[in-house]
From TrEMBL:
<dbReference type="GO" id="GO:0015179">
    <property type="term" value="F:L-amino acid transmembrane transporter activity"/>
</dbReference>
<feature type="transmembrane region" description="Helical">
    <location>
        <begin position="253"/>
        <end position="279"/>
    </location>
</feature>
<dbReference type="Pfam" id="PF13520">
    <property type="entry name" value="AA_permease_2"/>
</dbReference>
<feature type="transmembrane region" description="Helical">
    <location>
        <begin position="222"/>
        <end position="241"/>
    </location>
</feature>
<feature type="transmembrane region" description="Helical">
    <location>
        <begin position="167"/>
        <end position="191"/>
    </location>
</feature>
<dbReference type="GO" id="GO:0016020">
    <property type="term" value="C:membrane"/>
</dbReference>
<keyword id="KW-0812">Transmembrane</keyword>
<dbReference type="InterPro" id="IPR050598">
    <property type="entry name" value="AminoAcid_Transporter"/>
</dbReference>
<feature type="transmembrane region" description="Helical">
    <location>
        <begin position="50"/>
        <end position="73"/>
    </location>
</feature>
<feature type="transmembrane region" description="Helical">
    <location>
        <begin position="438"/>
        <end position="456"/>
    </location>
</feature>
<feature type="transmembrane region" description="Helical">
    <location>
        <begin position="299"/>
        <end position="323"/>
    </location>
</feature>
<protein>
    <submittedName>
        <fullName>Amino acid permease-associated region</fullName>
    </submittedName>
</protein>
<feature type="transmembrane region" description="Helical">
    <location>
        <begin position="352"/>
        <end position="371"/>
    </location>
</feature>
<feature type="transmembrane region" description="Helical">
    <location>
        <begin position="94"/>
        <end position="117"/>
    </location>
</feature>
<feature type="transmembrane region" description="Helical">
    <location>
        <begin position="20"/>
        <end position="38"/>
    </location>
</feature>
<feature type="transmembrane region" description="Helical">
    <location>
        <begin position="416"/>
        <end position="432"/>
    </location>
</feature>
<feature type="transmembrane region" description="Helical">
    <location>
        <begin position="377"/>
        <end position="396"/>
    </location>
</feature>
Length: 467
């Protein structure tokens, strides 16, 4: 079925995601490996436990600010495609083209590759034995086993999403609810059973084991890690065209899901401080399993590893689902290969876009980039496109003042301004830290914009997508 032949299909027939799966999509997309591997890295770059907690609270507030803005956009114009759609109507086709290709080539495949590699590196050796963390000889090459496992995860979840958004949506509920409940219970237990307040006071003078030492430029590195851990707060926007009663359910999914994860993250970070102390946290590695061992002994390792694996599957499934909608929306406007705009005649999914995304993610998985590089480049690109999208709420208030808005951003324009300022400060700090990731992301964006101006600007565009 071609893109053109699907335009006349009643969009209501494609709205198969109800409120609970939509919230689970946001929560599951956010609750990834980041909250388990990033706290030690953040602690290594800040001066003490209070600044450590402040970093996670500020990151959560920024995500909530973004969710409040995007809730207005999604309710106003519930179409699949996320940032790309709103950048197109807000900032124009050139900015949308550049941001779309940054998302298609870096952000979503980079997120998939990062989470899949981290999951394979930290969880599978615990569950399957040390061989899962070693090397494998294949076709005359020596390949790290975690990379092969990561590739298998991406392929399996892409296949599930190929067969239907309803299946993927309820899988999201299943792999999100159980880890959330257990992690909440464990966090409350840890805080109730330990002297968390003493940990905060005693750790204030501790020196972290990382090279950040709490310097100003190191704060940018710390926030990049936090930002990656919170990524996914905008997940519902990418499948807005497939959410039932979008004027009501999109704001609830974005704001409710983000608020829930923010609260959980702060509780978990308090728990990690209580278990390890601030001075001990930087040397932990993966904090979730290490905390389980510290609290309940070696017998708890397998159970915690399974819970974290479920959370990782939820994150990967959510990213697979939403990321493919970027290529789909771009193709429907003529900004990507036409085939990516096709909808499967039987399953109703953008199957070509799904497999295109998987192919790019696999290329990153087997690339020379290490996990930390993947995360930094992905986070820097997210900051750029995310900030432009959040500011679209301000632009569209001026360009389309009379457009129906079932939901309006609370405390407008404070959330948009707050989000933009926090992003700008972080980008400057990362540059001061001589991390090339921001400059590379800006260069990619600028190159795509130049390409659009030279080769795409004067082309006649396809009609806007309807989904």
């Amino acid at each position: 079925m071609t893109a053109a032949s699907t335009d006349s299909t009643d969009s209501r027939d494609r709205r198969k995601l109800t409120q609970l799966p939509a919230i689970a999509l946001v929560v599951g997309s956010m609750l990834g490996i980041g909250i388990f591997i990033m706290p030690p890295q953040v602690a290594a770059n800040v001066a003490g436990p209070w600044s450590f907690l402040a970093m996670w609270i500020v990151g959560g507030l920024a995500a909530l600010f973004g969710a409040l803005c995007l809730a207005e956009l999604g309710a106003m114009r519930p179409r699949s495609g996320g940032d790309y759609e709103f950048l197109h109507i807000g900032w124009g086709p050139g900015i949308a083209f550049a941001a779309g290709w940054l998302q298609l080539l870096v952000i979503f495949p980079g997120s998939l590759a990062s989470v899949a590699v981290a999951t394979a590196k930290f969880q599978f050796p615990v569950l399957l034995g040390s061989w899962a963390g070693g090397d494998v000889a294949l076709l005359g090459l020596t390949i790290p086993a975690p990379r092969l496992t990561a590739a298998a995860l991406v392929l399996v979840l892409t296949l599930i999403n190929h067969y239907g958004v309803r299946i993927a949506g309820w899988l999201q509920v299943l792999v999100t609810v159980v880890p959330i409940l257990v992690l909440l219970i464990v966090s409350v237990y840890v805080l109730g059973d330990s002297a968390g307040g003493e940990t905060l006071r005693e750790g204030t003078t501790a020196t972290p084991k990382g090279d950040g030492g709490g310097g100003i430029s190191a704060l940018g590195q710390a926030y990049l890690k936090v930002y990656f851990a919170y990524s996914g707060w905008n997940a519902a926007l990418y499948v807005a065209g497939e959410i039932d009663h979008p004027g009501r359910n999109i704001p609830r999914a974005l704001v409710g899901g983000t608020g829930l994860v923010t609260g959980l993250y702060v509780l978990l970070c308090l728990g990690f401080l209580s278990v390890f102390g601030f001075a001990g946290l930087p040397g932990v590695g993966e904090a979730g399993t290490a905390a389980a061992v510290q609290l309940f002994g070696p017998a708890a390792v397998t159970g915690m590893a399974v819970l974290i694996l479920l959370a990782m599957i939820g994150s990967l499934n959510g990213t697979t689902l939403i990321g493919s909608r970027i290529a789909f929306a771009m193709a429907r406007r003529g900004d990507c290969v036409e085939a990516a705009g096709r909808v499967h005649p039987r399953h109703g999914t953008p199957h070509v876009a799904l497999w295109l995304q998987a192919a790019i993610a696999l290329a990153l998985i087997f690339s020379p980039f290490n996990l930390d590089q993947m995360i930094n480049y992905t986070s820097s690109a997210m900051l750029i496109t995310g900030t432009l999208t959040v500011l679209s709420v301000v632009v569209l208030r001026r360009k389309m003042p009379n457009a129906p808005r079932p939901y309006k951003t609370t405390m407008y324009p404070l959330p948009a301004v707050g989000y933009a300022l926090s992003s700008l400060v972080v980008l400057v700090l990362v540059v001061l830290d001589r991390d090339p990731s921001v400059l590379v992301a800006v260069a990619w964006f600028a190159a795509a914009l130049v390409f659009w101006r030279l080769f795409v600007k004067h082309r006649e565009h396809e009609p806007p997508p309807i989904m």
